[in-house]
Amino acid sequence: MLLIVFITLVVAAAFLFLFRRRDTGSTTDTTPLGSDAEGHGAVDGAAAAIEDVVDQFLGVDSHPALPEATGPADPLTQIKGLGPKAQAQLNTLGIHRYDQLAALDEAQVATVDAGMGTFRGRILKDQWVDQARHLAKGDTAGFEAKFGKLGG
Which Gene3D superfamilies did the record assign (predicted)? Predict the structure, then answer.
């Protein structure tokens, strides 16, 4: 009986994965974050719930904990390719500081990226973690040598 439940959950998760809304990666989408935005719909919620149940059966954690913020928020918009809307989305995911971004491992980057909605893919494309490592250390010269003039 347990095997039948497990197989049903896997099939349902696969179905939801195949038919959920896809993000085009466009940064020009002005759709406000809300109940119909990527990552907030009924299908995405059901897929996340099924994923959590399957994770328990398999003994894995597909949502690794993110580093906690210690201290005041940093102006994340200093990072190239990260504007105010992307910063707001990071803030909703609990990322407020350079050191938090700098400390992300590969699994955590995937978790953050999955929650970025219309900004999905930008964390890797724009090298936010590498940029944050320089900024967290106060290495402005290293940042500017690799990424260009510090802006914001």
Answer: 5' to 3' exonuclease, C-terminal subdomain
Within the chain, which residues score under 70 in pLDDT?
A: 13-70, 152
pLDDT at res. 62? 53
Name 38's Cβ contacts closer than 8 Å, sequence gap at least 6. 21, 23, 44, 117, 118, 120
Give the pTM: 0.58
Distance of alpha carbon 63 from alpha carbon 112, whole angstroms: 9
Those residues whose C-beta lies under 8 Å from the C-beta of residue 67, and which sit 6 or more positions away, are 99, 100, 103, 104, 108
